[in-house]
Amino acid sequence: MTLRPENVRKAIASGKNQKLKDGHSLYLYVKNGHGFWIWQWTDFGPTKNNETPHAHTRSECLGPTHSMTPAQARKERESRVVARREGRDTRTSRRAAGELFSTAATSYLDNHADEWSARQRADLQSLAARYIPAEFNALPVTTIMADDVADVLRPIWNGPGNNKGTRLRRIIEGVLRSKDIEPNPAAWARQQDRLSKKRVKPINQPSMPFADVPAFMATLGDSVEDRAGRFVILTAARRIEALGAKWSEFDFANRVWNIPAERMKAKRPHAVPLTDAMLAALGTPGDGDAYVFPSSRTGGILGHKSLDKEWVPNGYTLHGFRSSFQTWAAEQDDGRAYPFEVREAALAHGKANAVVEAYDRSKLFEARRKLMQSWSDFVTGTK
């Protein structure tokens, strides 16, 4: 049968998730009150050892029913059939129309910004900017296929889990879902046979031996990037905590940097005792809402790439200096100079026990002040 416009409206209004046949491999797919035109065909893919080709059912979303009539859907299906018969990309006919992924992604991140903390927003924006290539951003959302998404994810894919690859897949899935792209090519159900399900064990980020840190610090200049990196090393803070710092967070009278909970990994406010070397790295104080280490290009937050692998020599990472700090502190007087709970409190590790939390701002804070002063003296060559 062929579907009339009234059949389409009735199917969507029914509230049922269903799949209705229009004819010649064209289907009306209704899900969660939305309708989409789907073209399906059988593909006989290559096999090993000259075996009989195995039939695979393939599908492409032609567009949503609110912008495509049944007649338009049939015409689009015919153009794809011809394109496939001639060996052309069946998506080519759609390349010139539809909202670009980059535009849709910007809208999606803006529309959901209030659902995330500042740290989460920065993480998502950084993931999208760093790992979604320009050619993918230039695709109309209606042309994106599961293989396109898999190609984007594969370079950083370490298996399903709370990692960069999965977070990026969820961003892409959310963007496409916001544009009613169904079936969603970024959904795990569509990706699980294209990407490995094996979870790769996390690898510790390469850290510079603490004995080499003073020499490296001596090479740093007075650029905003070098001052930001020096501040990260001196405070043993995480990159996002330092780069997101604003002048209002600094209590210069008491020499304390108060990091708000929203920028902390453990979602608890953290106080860092300041040393002379840390204060020198800050530069001249500005307005309370201004970033301490602003981008020279935009005036906004300094980009993560500015302190990436090119900034740290020999394949080490900026985050790895936290390990350099931890190892140095653990070796002072065979670990007796700065006990484990003091080192953990200095690193703001989220798994601190009740005792650490209870004394963080009192007994342990003064112990941390001594620890951070000794570390500053060591890495700056003062002692």
Task: Report what the structure shows.
This protein has 383 residues and is α+β, with helices and mostly antiparallel strands. A hairpin with a 2-residue loop joins strand 2 and strand 3. It folds into three domains: 5-94, Integrase, DNA-binding domain (Double Stranded RNA Binding Domain, 2-Layer Sandwich), CATH 3.30.160.390; 116-191, no CATH class; 210-379, hpI Integrase, Chain A. The protein is built from 16 helices and seven strands. It is elongated and about 85 Å long.
Summing up helix and strand content along with how strands pair, one would put the structural category as alpha+beta
Shape: elongated
Fraction of residues in helix: 25-40%
Largest sheet: 4 strands, antiparallel
Q: How many DSSP-defined strands? A: 7
Q: Number of helical segments?
A: 16
User: What is the gyration radius calculated from CA atoms?
Assistant: 27 Å
Please state the second-level CATH architecture of the largest domain: Orthogonal Bundle
Q: Could you please say which CATH topology of the largest domain applies here?
A: hpI Integrase, Chain A
Mean pLDDT: 84
- How many structurally independent domains? 3
**Strand order, largest beta sheet:** 1-2-3-4
The helix/strand series, from N terminus to C terminus, equals: HEEEEHHHHHHHHHHEEEHHHHH
Q: How many angstroms separate the termini?
A: 86 Å
The residue ranges in which pLDDT falls below 50 over 5 or more consecutive positions are: 92-97
CATH class label of the largest domain: Mainly Alpha
Q: Into which percentage range does the β-strand content fall? A: 5-15%
Oligomer: single chain
